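Lysine 2,3-aminomutase structure dump, as promised
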Amino acid sequence: MAQVGQQAKSAPFKVYTQRDLDRIEQLSRLSPEARFEMRVVSSVLPFRVNQYVIDELIDWKHVPEDPIFQLTFPQRGMLAPAHYDRVAALLRGGADKDEIARAVDEIRQELNPHPADQMEMNMPRDEEGHRLDGIQHKYRETVLFFPSQGQTCHSYCTFCFRWAQFVGDKELRIASSEAAVLHNYLRTHPEVTDVLFTGGDPMVMKTAHLKSYIEPLLAPEFDHIRTLRIGTKALTFWPQRFVSAEDADKLINLFEAVVESGKQLAIMAHYNHWKELDTEVAQAAIRRVRGTGAMIRAQGPLIAHINDDPAVWARLWQKEVELGIVPYYMFVERDTGARNYFEVPLVRAWEIYREAMQSVSGLARTARGPSMSASPGKVEIQGVTEVAGEKVIALRFIQGRNPDWVQRPFFAKYDDQATWLDHLRPAFGEEKWFWEDEYATIREDKLAN
Ligand SMILES: *Cc1c(COP(=O)(O)O)cnc(C)c1O
Ligand code: SF4
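structure tokens r here:
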């Protein structure tokens, strides 16, 4: 028995990309057209999946509807018909590499590769005005750091809003390998209390790399940093990382050292569906991480074809609470990449949120949302209501470029088709949002720099 356990423990990490589509055994049961469609779509959007996801998370009897299949495998509808036809024609006609690359490049540029002005507005500069690559600082308290070794993931989500970072275009990549840049920045910004390591997925890094970023932050000069957060989907895509990977024990020791230093360690786990929480190894990983004193919080977008169903969210939140995870955010799918395939109207998103909330106990009602991470801030849909005879959508900022905007209710004209903030118009015949002029000023300032 021990040996069986040992074997299961040491199953190697095996990953497939576009070139390897034909080597995925389970795909052979799909039609040749379906496989060709995958090849077309994955020429434009990143594709990467590992053996654990294929064998343990996807229910192949229910493909293509299976939510984890939709989460990881390219589908024809993810490209606009014109884009699809263009790439399909090139592949069928045996076009040369360069020609395909040019077409793919043009299509990617049309997919809003950097939504919410991330490149222009969130990147801080040092005293000499040099842009600090790999850092984003949008909200006063929290700095995001993109370690350069963590800019990939154990599998890719088809709907990922950071997809542009995975397609190998250097200019599009936000990354820094320099821990010193991060540490210098934090030293001179005492207002920052939280650092969020993100990517890609920082958990693809070797523990030694992660340690070089994290350990120095435990020194007294960084006492203002109260919380270290790690954004990850490894608890879904490769829970072995925390349990049986070569340096899993070192990782656990590092987590323990953070907690012992008196800081909060928050694992911001990305979950979309309760199926991700069902395997034994996923649950073992959660137990092990929690055993260090780290807190696991769960967040993820609401996505058509994957989880646009109140019953799925209710079961997800309930399961999270059962496993000691705190539901934190329900996001709205962003306006980038394959958004046309995945988006859910804001009003429908709120209905799903509300119905799911109504069917779980109070401990599972801690997720905020549905929330849009737009350029001015995180905007939550609070609900549909009627004010002075007008049907409206009530909104509020959960986070704002100006902290003063946070928690002020504001109203949009009712619109059951809108899927993003820029589709909404102010209610009551008003010309502008209360924050609009101020946001325009902030934006001009940032873009001028
Ligand atoms: C969501 C987010 C944060 C963290 O916000 P919290 O509400 O504190 O979780 C920080 N920076 C950016 C850019 C974000 O999108
Ligand atoms: S794990 Fe996160 S960063 Fe990686 S592909 Fe999924 S959504 Fe994108």
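Confidence is low (pLDDT under 50) at residues 1-8.
lmk if u need the other ones
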